[in-house]
Amino acid sequence: MKKVEAIIRKSKFDDVKNALHEVEVNFFSYWDVTGVGNEKQGNVYRGISYSTSEIQRRFLSIVVSDEFADRTVEAIVKSGATGNVGDGKIFVLPVEEAIRIRTGEKGSPSLN
Questions:
Q1: What is the distance between the alpha carbons of residues 71 and 3, in angstroms, rounded to a whole number?
Q2: What is the domain-level CATH number for residue 84?
Q3: Can you tell me the distance from the alpha carbon of 73 to that of 90, in angstroms, rounded to the nearest whole number?
Q4: Residue by residue, what is the 3-state secondary structure of 50-98?
Q5: Which residues, including other chains, have CB under 8 Å from residue 88's CB and lie 6 or more apart?
Q6: Cα→Cα distances 74→15, 36, 61, 82, Å
Q7: SS3 sequence, 3-20?
C-alpha cells in the first residue's frame, strides 16, 4: 500500500477530485493549508503585489493499494497542473498496514 500526499492549488481541487474519481480513487481526506515555498517571485494583480509562495493550497492524503499508486499520481499531475510556478508537490510513501475500525479488516481490502 502507498500513501499519496499532494499539495495542490485550491483552484484545481474540483479538477483533481474528478480525475481521482475517474481512476476509481473514491476516498481521500483533504484540508486547507498555507505554506512557504522556494519561489520568491511576486505577482501584481490589480495593483496589489502578492507572493506565489503564499497562495492558499489544499493538502490531499490518499492511501491506495500498490496497483493504484501510479494512476493516482498521474491523475493528480494531469488535472492539477497549470504550468505555472506554485502548482504543488506530490509525495508517495509506503504504508505498512491499514485497518478498518468497524470490522477489524486489515490490508488493502480495508481500503474499499
A1: 13
A2: 3.30.70.120
A3: 7
A4: EEHHHCCEEEEEEEECHHHHHHHHHHHHHHHCCCCCCCEEEEEEECCCC
A5: 6, 7, 8, 9, 57, 80
A6: 13, 25, 15, 14
A7: EEEEEEEHHHHHHHHHHH
Number of domains in the chain: 1
- The residue written with cell numbers 507572493 in the block is 51
Could you read off the pLDDT tens digit of each residue along the chain, which spans 112 residues? 999 999 999 999 999 999 999 999 999 999 999 887 666 666 666 676 666 556 789 999 999 999 999 999 999 999 999 998 889 999 999 999 999 999 999 999 998 8
Task: Give SS3 for 111.
Answer: helix
pLDDT in the model for residue 35: 80
Look up residue 3 and give its three cell numbers: 500513501
**Structural domain harbouring 55:** 2-111
The residue whose grid cell reads 503585489 is 49
